[in-house]
Amino acid sequence: PLFYKIERLIMKKVYLLSAALCVCISLPAFADEHCCGGHSPAKKSVNSVETVGNTTTVKNSDGETLVFGSTEWPKSDFFQAVPKFTSGKIVSSVETAESVLVMIESAEPAPTAEYLKTIKSKFNKDSYEMNYQGTTNLGGGNGSLMLYIVYDQNAKTLSISCSKNKN
């Protein structure tokens, strides 16, 4: 039991760090700056930052938004093509006009296996699947979207990352 509690705590920190990393990567691109501190000034500026509960919304000068911290299924139009996972508890999400990341806990093996089967049938272009020691990595596209999923059966955590296909 103690090892399990420690493992869950570590996984929560990994998910929070993943969310923070997504935000850190998204903000410069969101502001149209160069990655890694490029030399040209931002072409867009952040106009507003609003936090309600755990959800923070950042809007830039073009009206684009970056939303993170929500515990609800993302509402982006393009993400509606991704079947909703209803079995676990969403602990955080990051959402822009181009990409979405959803982090879920309490993802039980049986419903997750069914979900992954559905995803594999809908996102079967340039797809791959890797399984190692209870962790499944799955990726694929449907022509307009690319989807990447990591499921840790031992920790019962699921992350779903989706972005618009640039090709």
Give a written overview of the molecule.
The chain is an alpha+beta fold and 167 residues long. Helices cover 26% and strands 37% of the residues. The chain has two helices and nine strands, in the order H-E-E-E-E-E-H-E-E-E-E. It has helices at 2-30, 109-122; strands spanning 46-52, 55-60, 65-68, 89-95, 99-105, 125-132, 135-141, 145-152, 157-164. The chain has a nine-stranded antiparallel beta sheet, sandwiched between helices. A hairpin with a 2-residue loop joins strand 1 and strand 2.
- Total number of helical segments? 2
- Poorly predicted tracts of residues: 19-41
How far is the N terminus from the C terminus?
47 Å
Bin the strand percentage. 35-45%
Secondary-structure element series? HEEEEEHEEEE
- The total count of strands amounts to 9
Helical residues, percent: 25-40%
Q: Largest beta sheet, briefly?
A: 9 strands, antiparallel
- Using the CA coordinates, give the radius of gyration: 17 Å
Report strand order across the widest sheet.
1-2-3-4-5-9-8-7-6
Structural class: alpha+beta
Kindly state the mean pLDDT as a whole number? 78
Shape: globular
Helices and strands in order:
Blueprint: H1 2-30, E1 46-52, E2 55-60, E3 65-68, E4 89-95, E5 99-105, H2 109-122, E6 125-132, E7 135-141, E8 145-152, E9 157-164
Antiparallel strand pairs: 1-2, 2-3, 3-4, 4-5, 5-9, 6-7, 7-8, 8-9
Quick structural gist:
This protein is α+β, with helices and mostly antiparallel strands and 167 residues long. It is built from two helices and nine strands.
